[in-house]
Predict the 3D structure of the following.
Amino acid sequence: MASNSNREFSSNSVSMRISGNLNSKRKAISSDGRDQMPPPPSRENLNSSSPSSANTQTVASNFVSNEGTPNEGTPSLACASKKVRSEVWVHFVKLKDDQGNETGRAKCVYCSKDYLANSEQGTSGLWKHLRDTCKKFPNKKEFVEAYKSRDKMQKILNFQKASESEKSKLSCWQFDQQACRDALVKMIIKDELPFRFVEGEGFREFIQVSLPMFQIPSRYTIARDCYYLFVQEKKKLHALLTSQCQRVSLTTDTWTSIQNVSYLCLTAHFIDSGWNLHKRILNFCVVKSHKGINIGNAIDFCMDEWGLNKVMCITVDNASSNDTAVQQLKKKLTKKNAFVLGGEAFHMRCFAHILQLVVKDGLESAQYSIRRIRDVVKYVRGSPQRLEMFKKCCESANIKSKASLQLDCPTRWNSTYLMLESAVVYQKAFDKLEDVDSKFLGEFGNDMPSEVDWTKARNLTRFLKRFYDVTCKISGSLYSTSNLYFPEIMRVLKDLQAFQSSNDLNLAEMGRMMREKFDKYWGSIQKMNVMLFIAVVLDPRYKMDYLAAKYKSFYSENDANDLVTRVTNSLRALMDEYKGNEQVGMGGVINPSNDVEDMVEDEELDDYFIEREKEQSLVSKGELDRYFGELPEKYTHDFDLLNWWKVNAVRYPILSKVAKDVLAIQSSTVASESAFSTGGRTLDRFRSSLTPTTAEVLICCQDWLRSSSKPIQLEETIEDLESLESEITQDPEIVESVMPRTRVDC
């Protein structure tokens, strides 16, 4: 629906165009002299001076006012004897008899057709004549459009919340078919609903009760609207990347759907001019295969599509195909001068994947005990009868825990940790189940978990919890994680050293095996990306002293000194690059790598500018020294790193630009992998016929539209359902009508 400003402009332009013809038209109208009357005052004469914008808007709004609805304060445009307030009398004149009395009829000033127009009839028929019948009415098309765009319904005051975190705001609500349709499309995308949802019986009944005037579109219309919305949001994101992004950091991963189609997800991470970290899925596209060359070509194509020619890092997992893809991509981007530090820091390995490899090696020595516990958990969850019997055993063992048993995915150590954590609590219940369930003992026999197995599981749970917490912390995508990479690696190393020196031989052996894998990826500074160290020193709580002291506590002093030298040189080189880019962007020195002496050869260059360039160079070099010379900020867990740089960007103009790109680097590929969870729900066995283009539209649009940082929880957990049932059954009416029912055993 058009806005008020559009309606005012449209109606005003129509009124002004036809006003010049009114006087001449009225002179031509005659019915035996009975309709001779003074011409209506022109719009300029309605006010003593030239009309103001406010008066013009008043006339314009009255031009498309509700039919027959008097508007108080509107000047008379028909006659002096009786004041009329409808704007329709600009286009009609009232007819009079020989005595000068009104006959109750009115004649059109354009086609001379007369209509009944007394007080009982109102002006609806006159308006209808102008819209539908009169063929001589000038600018009829604009008039009809202005009439259709008028507000016909009274607005309703309403308290609305844009999100759960915001407070209710008083607003005016009015039914708008297009706005409702747009909201429906967003709901389909955000909540991962099928297009057929709009044709469901329940949804139609709900709309019939809550909003009966809403015309429900078909699933084909909804699908088409999703495509239109995707195009609009893509333009907005492209504008955001162009206007507020220096460089982007990328994460990518591949996935095979239920359709046996290979998809690649490319996600961009950047910090805008307001120092807000953004995560946006750029593409969810088909890739020919998981070969490195195909992946590299696909990423390059996606970057060209978005016009991305400045890249900081790309974070990938440790698959060999990704190493090939990065090398392939590096060759193409080198020609575009898209890197910093010559591409030395372009390849970032995923922290979570390396940690998974480290933990996986450690779990090898405990696989026998883990398998036994996994089997008994699987048995209990195998049928409702077994689960019910297990609950009785829990009551008998006086176990108060309400946590549910969880099955793990053997290839994911974090799910194994969650399974063990939930199972060790119920050890006594499993022991009692041997006495009450003969099938339980008969199925496992001597392969039942022993006391040694449960002891190993408890130790393993405490052991894995530390790595689980580190993984959760480093896998965030809505806060900076690059500055956490090095501190968390040092924390892992400290734990491994403690496990190696443990009196428990099993833990000591696990620690030894994990340390070997740790050293393979993180054993020396040459094996780690220099950006990880730069991100640490750009955290004002750490700086260079923390980096040197922490590294010295695990390695030699010479290694620590080498690390400080490497980081300092790389950071200064980064600042020189950013300083040069700033000069070129501001129309300054075209070749910033030249020495100041070379500038003297330019005859156009004044001595003043040469001296100023020297001063700026000294200030830039002193900027990093000044940052390291100041005391570190007090360490707190809730320290807002991005806000600190936002406040201090004025003091460190070049260093803050470096920090903006370095702190946007992601330590893991979780952001891209989470898109595959959405893809798995979107392309499930019920919607496996969706085309790859439609899948990309739905998945990308959902990421662009969602304002909440919480992941979508489509399936309620067992704990949630049990809590819900416990709350519902407290209602006496429900207890009386539902609970007395007895189940019939089949």
User: Anything to note?
Assistant: Residues 1-81, 584-603, 711-716, 741-746 have pLDDT under 50 and may be disordered. The radius of gyration is 37 Å. The first helix runs from residue 4 to 19. The beta strands are 92-96, 102-108, 114-116, 156-160, 169-173, 248-256, 262-271, 277-286, 311-316, 347-349.
